[in-house]
Amino acid sequence: MATQLAFRSSVIAQPSQIRRTSRRACRQQRVQLAPRAQPTSSGSSTQSEIPWQFGFQMNERFLEWDAAASRELIKRVLAQKLSVSDEEVDARLAELGTLVPDMVARMDRTRADILLAMVSDTSATMSKLMAMRDLLPGVNVSLLVSRWPQIMLDYTPESLKARLDDMRRVLPGVRVEALVDLEPMMLKADLDKVLANIRRIMPGHDPVAVLLAQPAMVLDMQQAGMDSAVDVEGFVPRKAAQP
Fold it and tell me: What is the 3-state secondary structure (H, E, C) of 52-83?
């Protein structure tokens, strides 16, 4: 009887011993399967390296270009387009700075295609600037071009004169040169539609007086002839504005 009880107790205890043995074997197996430490160049060991933990992703949207970097990039583009050396580009930009001194501080923010048109033939650029000074008396043409350099591509002296004459027709008695100096995009606006919109929105007010008081506020993108998206690269086919 005692022998039977001892045998029974040993049988009952056997499952717990099996469980302890199994857990011990699993721990030993996990230890054996754990990644082995890799020696570094200094000879010490570190934890296993996972590729995506020591890499990084650079998004160009978060890059910030300072003025010097932008200027160098523009110079490279101009040198490539003109097939000249960087020194020649520097000389042409310096000459352009003499013609349009207010543009010097803005060259790094000016589209490369506009600068290309201005430095390709500096004599032609000087002639156009002189014509603009004659057509816009009392206006600082250097400051105007630095604020809105697109005018150098959009207008010839002939088309600019025709446009100013048309503005005088729509706005009799108004010194349109001063209006352009205040808001250059008036050159591209359909003034008949602008005045009609002012009459519709503000009945009882003089539309011309409203236009002169707040010229930038009465223009939308379509009336000003602006593109819905900004062309930052340039070098797209363009033609001079038509009167």
Answer: HHCCCCCCHHHCCCCHHHHHHHHHHHHHHHHC
